[in-house]
Amino acid sequence: MFALTTVVLAWTQAAAFHLPVPALHADITPPPSALTDVALPTVALDPRADAWRLGLAQPAPHPAAAEPAAAADTAAEACDVDCETAHEDARTARFVMRNRARTLRWHRGFAIAAWSTFVVTEVLGTIQAVNQPTWFGNGNCSSNPESFGCHQSSMISGLHETFAIGTTALYTTAGILAIAAPDPEHAAEGTGQAQSTLRLHKTLAWVHGVGMILLPIMGVLTAHPQILGINEATQADFSRGMRTVHTVLGWSTFAALTWSAYLEIF
Fold first, then answer.
1. Can you spell out the DSSP letters for 193-260?
2. What is the pTM of this model?
């Protein structure tokens, strides 16, 4: 509207002052030189995008660009294999350590039970050693038949044998469990306090282990020396000596087992 009003006014002035009438296309249409000076924006065409818009297949990537992708796929496949192996190793390690912890808990339970019955066995055995002849004397029953346990000698002897059998069975079970416990990390190796304590615990196990093997044998030989072919004239002296050694070995074994249990629990 403004342009049309301008043209009308120009014609009116030209007619009034006898001026030349301007051409319409001269005011409205820009000159050709102006058109050539206009800078058109340059648009970069992506053939893959155009192909996608047209529904055509994209061009194959350049071989140089495909090499990093292939290397990445190979690395990912190798990582999958390595990661799966690592996960399997971790699961196996957790299973082994859980098995070790469970086995050692059972070992500790049987060991404490063996220690408890061992106390009763030693008390009953000591009563017999005090009342009967040993290398330390002829025994209380020979000097005072009314001493404690003299009239119940057979009962005390039977209880002693019963608890000795129970102690041996419990101790053997605890030892088997200790040997069967897996030790993949070699817990006794090293210079730390825990490693030193475990090594001492195992050393004491050898001590009381040998004692627990010898004690039943010596007990049977003390009560029945004729098994070895000892004649009746020397059976009393043989039993006196075996009873003394059996009693001393019993308390030594009990001390080693107590020390070992202390290291294990505390």
1. HHHHHHHHHHHHHHHHHHHHHHHHHHHHHHH-GGGGT--HHHHHHHHHHHHHHHHHHHHHHHHHHHHH
2. 0.66
